[in-house]
Design a protein that fits this description.
By secondary structure, this protein is of the alpha+beta class. The chain has five helices and 19 strands. Strands 12-14-17-16 form a four-stranded antiparallel β-sheet. A four-stranded mixed β-sheet has the order 13-19-18-15, with no helix packed on it. A three-stranded antiparallel β-sheet has the order 5-8-9, with no helix packed on it. The relative contact order is 0.12.
Amino acid sequence: MRQVNGTILKDANQLICASQYGQIYRNSDPRIGQSVNLLVQDHDLLITLTNPIALYGQKPDLSMFEMPANANKTIQDCYTIVRGLENNSGKAYYPNNMILHSRFFVPEGANFTLSDIKINGVPMKWGSQIADTFQVQLAGTGIPASSGQKPEIFPPVADAPVLLPNIQYVLDYDVLSASLYNKLNSLSNLTSCITQVEVGKTTDNIAILTYNATKNTQFDFGPGITTTINSYQDLGNNGQLFVVSLEVDSSASTGQKPLALYNTSTDPKYPIAGVLEVVPAGTLPTLSTKKNATALSEAQVEHLKAIL
């Protein structure tokens, strides 16, 4: 448990900041951490993650699905568990589904397509519609404490000294601007949106949010990619925003490119993957853009600082 000024923390976001096990304001990390922490506080249990350690999918609520009137298969025929357990072999310690991999599909011989099936009255078009029909759980197993054993209480963890710059996000500046304009409370989902650039072209307005960088920080995407820094803004709290242009040589190979940051030529380089992909020339639509020269407003900076 975490304690500040004699008070045991119970708030989800306070707990996650004090323990640094994830990102605040998300639906997953804060709630999971709070739920497990309260089990310890309220029941004096030792807690471990249930084996196998995973986020367990639950079965979809099939009542939310509507099959075509003439369908020759049922909705149950369209869903199968590939890996994991629907029932936990009669064990009482975790009564819910332990689904690790499930599949939704049109069975062989069906006279309909997926788009003929409706979810909540809307024809199926996206996988996210199916995701809305089931829940996901992280399961913890409680172990009764020994006689007289009490939960351990710790102060908030300290911030480790950071000597090297690191990457928060790499994204199109317009995506960043739209996120701030709409006051999104988290940029976390943008990490899966790999920024794409074309072979033989220069792409402007790439925003790189960093931590512990300086205006002299350099960016290394590997051979054939040149980074030109067009603007730099100190966001405070050791955060920075660079807006750069990426020039991809015609001889550069396609595929994902890791990014390494360094403040000085003697800094070790620790690349991070999954932030940039080079695609063949002609892959992306042609857009009319100009280099961004406008710094974030004070309100935008404060919003960024709150969610990074």
